[in-house]
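Reference record
================
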Amino acid sequence: MPHEEPLSPILGLDPLWIATGILILTYALIMTERVNRAILALIGGGLMVTLGILNQEEAVRGIDFNTLALLIGMMVLVSVTKKCGVFQYVAIVTAQLVKASPAAVMALLAIVTAVFSAFLDNVTTVLLVAPVTLVVCRQLQVNPYPFLFTQIFASNIGGTATLIGDPPNILIGSLVGISFNAFVVNLAPIIFVILAVQIAMGHLLWGIRLKATPEARASVMALNAKESITDSLLMKQALGVLALVILCFVMARQLHLEPGTIALGGATLLLLLDNLDHAIDHQHHRVTEAFNEVEWVTIFFFVGLFVLIAGVERAGLLSLLAEKLLAATHGDMKVTAVAILWASAVLSAIIDNIPFVATMVPLIKNLQGALGGPEAIMPLWWALSLGACLGGNGTLIGASANLTVAGIATREGVEFRFVKFLLVAFPMMLVSVAIAHAYVMWRYFGGF
């Protein structure tokens, strides 16, 4: 967002320091988890406008409505689709495919979680898969913690593979203009490898010791998966619309459509199909239910965050940080990519990866002039995506999916302690980032 006139001092202070203080204070309060993060982000964004760092028009321009449309559209799609029971069906069939062997069920459910996370979003995926996992674990009479742990990892790993799988990717894709196909081509190959390694590690940690009695396994095999499907017509409609949406994502460049338009278009089509046979009063109730399923806290968190980041960009903080990063890496693209990958991973484990990526995107954009232009810095976007998405696995607060699973587990009496999770998750996260490091060096710089 270019500006010709410098900002005047605010309350006798340099606007750069005021904007930086607002940013740091907002992030610090978000990390405490004592006040809802949407409220804090909106307060931070509001202060940027109130104190004159941004005017009203600049604040609105700073909001990326394509990102919001993509998030809302996919949330509505999933909220309608889940009513038919297809996700529960897949989970039960998965368990039965491997004869209800606990170790194999844990591995296959992780794979299912990763695949769903690539094409829906990882928070929605764990909301659907985790409750079914708890039911299967009760039937098998095994500890659900290892299953839920591996699903957290799988959701964040699988979500890394596509534009729509993980909020950091949605931000990067929308703010930078990177296509769905580009994410798949550049990230999916290494995600298969990382997922396989993480599942193998989970098997060595827990899988080889998981046992279930023949009676418990028989109870899972006796479950009737078809009974999970509550509306076969809706299932066909939903799967058809989801397939059409994914096809449109793949062909977005040829269709001249943005991801947000595609997602909202698909959501609207599925809502239409789901309501055609109902009276207008009933339609109103059903559509309201679908919109109530949207995570509005997340949406307004993004709104506040966009304004907050626009404020620090306007104040000149991101340009300053870009200069410091260039000086530290001596303008070397390889060193810069490594720095972004590892810094993103470690910091995303400490703070939520969404605000971190929202800060990093304009910062990296400021590097493109010194590093050869938009095309030349593409490896930096892949390093940011891999670092932020994989780094989210490092702690319970690293990604929204982690906290979602922990919340579901706690309500069902399964303890998810921060330190217990950290001691296993952080080393496993470092392994996945090390693999990503090797991949980035090999693919984009011709050597390690």
Summary: The chain has a mean pLDDT of 88.
